[in-house]
Write a structure and sequence with these properties.
mainly alpha; 434 Repressor (Amino-terminal Domain)
Length: 136
């Protein structure tokens, strides 16, 4: 059984949530695949916007393997981490401030995602220094 199409944005939203869950659990795609009992290519497909989507039983296995709430993983609603309480009774399905606000931010985000982990750390450190320098 597949996730209903009424859930946030099933084409890219689910793929992004699976990626976020995997990364927060500090798992590689192959590590997640091993825990869920699928091939590495299946896990890679789940994270691709045009890739295949996991069925409900696999989605539950992903939520368990990454210690996230099933509801958050499936729909984007509620707290991400299992056992965490929602900040309010109504959690927005999409937090718009987490997305690029204009074309230049989108370009930066795309290029940032292509950087190696070491280069990302260096860039974030540089940006922190820039921000601290302005406060003086």
């Amino acid at each position: 059984m597949k996730i209903p199409s009424g859930a946030v944005d099933p084409r890219t939203g689910l793929a992004d949530r699976i990626r976020r869950a995997r990364r927060s659990a500090r798992l590689s795609q192959s590590g997640l695949a091993a825990r869920v009992g699928v091939t590495s290519s299946a896990a890679a497909q789940w994270e691709h916007p045009d890739g295949t989507k996991p069925g409900l039983s696999r989605l539950q296995s992903i939520a368990t393997a990454t210690a996230v709430n099933f509801e958050w993983l499936a729909t984007g609603r509620g707290p991400q981490l299992r056992g965490a309480k929602a900040e309010s009774t109504e959690t927005p399905a999409v937090k718009l401030d987490l997305f690029a606000l204009d074309e230049s931010e989108e370009t930066l985000l795309r290029r940032f995602r292509r950087l190696s982990p070491r280069a990302r750390e260096m860039l974030v450190g540089f940006l922190r220094e820039l921000r601290l320098g302005k406060q003086v």
